[in-house]
Design goal:
It is a single chain. By secondary structure, this protein is α+β, with helices and mostly antiparallel strands. It contains nine helices and nine strands. The strands form three sheets. The protein has a four-stranded antiparallel sheet, sandwiched between helices. Helix 8 crosses helix 9. It holds the Pfam family RVT_1. InterPro entries: DNA/RNA_pol_sf (IPR043502), Rev_trsase/Diguanyl_cyclase (IPR043128), RT_dom (IPR000477), Viral_Replic_Matur_Polypro (IPR051320). This is Retrovirus-related Pol polyprotein from transposon 17.6.
Length: 229
């Protein structure tokens, strides 16, 4: 069970913490060249990060039984993702040549089996030292290829995850601007695999402009662009 709280009011008055997320394209390219890869999943994710005492009252919420507040970082806070990424980058900074984290997904990548065992040992030791736990059921150990961030990577190559592509293939034609933006978000994720993507998608991206109504017009031009993505 994952407890979620509506933090929209709190987020509206929270100052943004501008910390750069890892570039997924760079991660895929770097990790994909490895011959042996392990992917670790941090078990409790954000809940591994304690909140400062003075911040806890701001996260208070009521239930039918009582009022509670968070002692650890909950999901839904404006700066949660950036804060968690910073913590992971700091924790693994000395291993960046062979270990990268994108939020709670940690990839360890090596050129050969013996080297990988050494890399795996030092990273797991560091996580243990910092009291991070991993979800063994979601971890994948020492593979030549594996799924990572929606891609199949390893052995000098990378390609889209076929399951993700099937999800894109069955998307129905969007009838509103909101639905179109969601579809474009999926298309954009794999834009590096589509030659001349910006040109192909232009009829669709034009429909997201402010002067276009929420109920979007649709002609053969938009249909062709939609099918080519």
């Amino acid at each position: 069970m994952r407890l979620c709280v509506d933090f929209r009011l709190l987020n509206a008055v929270t100052k943004a913490f501008d910390y750069p997320m890892e570039n997924i394209t760079d991660l895929i390219n770097q990790i994909g060249h490895a011959n042996v890869i392990t992917c670790l999943d941090v078990l409790k994710g954000y809940w591994e990060i304690p909140l400062e005492e003075e911040s806890r009252d701001f996260t208070s919420f009521k239930t039918h039984r009582a009022q509670y507040r968070w002692k650890v970082m909950p999901f839904g806070l404006r700066n949660a993702a950036a804060s968690f990424q910073k913590v992971m980058n700091s924790a693994l900074s000395e291993y960046r040549e062979f270990c990268k984290a994108y939020l709670d997904d940690i990839a360890i990548f090596s050129c050969d089996w013996d080297t990988h065992l050494k890399h795996l040992d030092v990273v797991l030791s560091k996580l243990t030292e910092l009291k991070f736990t991993v979800n063994v059921k979601k971890c994948v150990f020492a593979k030549t290829q594996l799924k990572y961030l929606g891609h199949i990577i390893g052995a000098g190559r990378h390609e889209p995850d076929p399951e993700k592509l099937r999800a894109i293939e069955i998307i129905e034609r969007p009838r509103t601007k909101s639905a179109l933006k969601s579809a474009l978000g999926l298309f954009n994720y794999y834009r590096n695999y589509i030659k001349n993507y910006a040109e192909i998608a232009k009829p669709l991206t034009d429909l997201t402009k402010k002067n276009v109504p929420e109920s979007i017009p649709w002609t053969d031009v938009e249909e062709l662009s939609f099918q080519e993505n």
